[in-house]
Write a structure and sequence with these properties.
Length: about 350
């Protein structure tokens, strides 16, 4: 089946089921490459249809402009929060334009506060009007400042808070088949799924190529619960190789995408002469020419698909994204496919 890749106004061509990778060897993890585990959650999802439907209603109510702390005050949430988490306040941080609302909680154990300043932050993924994608992120303390890896206790309580509000988290946290695969990747080391994000990817939505490397995290488990997403995922080394070959071929054939004018061509060719600089510019996420080439150029996206970097995730599929070092770290880009918004889980893997 052919489907169009559209993201925030950019048409990136067509994907065909036949062009995408359906299964990966587990050895990919050690190489920093993506590992697709097709259907590993399919049988468990059916037990959580009620939770998935409730979360969809929560998402729709937020789109309708309802306040999140009011929505969480409803019995279906309070019955499970009471005695375990106390909802304290909610606010919208000044200067964080993508933020919709952050709700704060304390964790309780036998009536006493066990962990303070936990939060669920709800944010838009972009400023594009036709993209209704948003995410619920669970963490604690000062966002982007706190060294979350240094506080495993609060990290664990923030994860439990996610379990209570989104019980469908258990589709990956209580899944023996997935657990065995993760233990295989981690050479038997025990792990916890932390810094949790619940995504609602809507048509025109998704994410530009990036990595999720963070101290103390070995990688990310992404599970598609409903809807469909398309992914480009590859190591940074592979990405640099793809950039260089695209630029060489465009030069040799004197055939450049219309959106890449002579000035941008020169800038990109100059970058491609120096591997170290190209790597640094990628990590900076601020080089406009590079951002345009790798995220908004149909020819480049289609080259990545032809070279085996595409994965199509439907309900029940999981993608593992190793994030171990700057070099052996899986970069990834996401597109919503089809007309429906879908729910997904994206949890970081912490090994101790
Ligand atoms: Fe990511």
């Amino acid at each position: 089946m052919k489907q169009t890749l559209l993201r925030r106004g950019f048409d990136l061509g067509v994907i065909d089921d036949a062009d995408v990778v359906c299964e990966d060897p587990m050895s990919n993890w050690q190489l920093g490459k993506p590992t697709m585990l097709a259907g590993i959650c399919r049988s468990v999802i059916s037990q959580h249809q009620g939770h998935i439907a409730r979360s969809d209603s929560l998402y729709q109510a937020i789109l309708d402009g309802q306040s999140i702390d009011t929505l969480l005050a409803e019995n279906s949430y309070q019955d499970h929060l009471q005695g375990r988490f106390e909802m304290l306040s909610s606010l919208i941080h000044e200067g964080e334009e993508q933020e919709i609302e952050t709700v704060f909680f304390d964790a309780l154990e036998e009536g006493r506060v066990a962990a303070e300043d936990l939060w669920m932050k709800v944010s838009w993924l972009a400023f594009y009007e036709q993209d209704a994608s948003l995410r619920f992120r669970f963490s604690f303390g000062a966002d982007h400042v706190e060294d979350v890896a240094a506080d495993p206790l609060r990290q664990r309580y923030a994860a439990k808070l996610c379990d209570v509000i989104f019980p469908e988290s258990r589709i990956i946290t209580n899944n023996p088949a997935l657990e065995n695969k993760l233990l295989e990747c981690l050479n038997g080391k025990s792990y916890a799924l932390v810094e949790r994000i619940i995504y609602f990817n809507a048509p025109q939505g998704g994410a530009y190529l990036h990595h999720d490397r963070e101290r103390g995290h070995a990688g990310v488990v992404y599970a598609q619960l409903s809807g469909t997403t398309f992914w480009l995922a590859l190591t940074k080394r592979q990405l640099q190789h793809e950039i260089n070959s695209f630029l060489q071929e465009s030069t040799a054939a004197s055939d450049w995408p219309r959106s890449i004018g002579p000035e941008m061509q020169l800038e990109l060719l100059e970058l491609s002469k120096d591997d170290q600089r190209l790597a640094e510019e990628l990590e900076s996420f601020s080089n406009d020419a590079l951002i345009h080439l790798i995220n908004e150029t149909a020819g480049f996206v289609q080259q990545l698909i032809r070279n085996g970097h595409g994965r199509l995730l439907r309900s029940g599929d999981v993608l593992l994204l190793p994030q171990q070092s700057t070099e052996d770290c899986c970069w990834h880009s996401v597109f919503c496919v089809g007309d429906d918004c879908g729910e997904a889980l994206s949890f970081a893997i912490r090994t101790d």
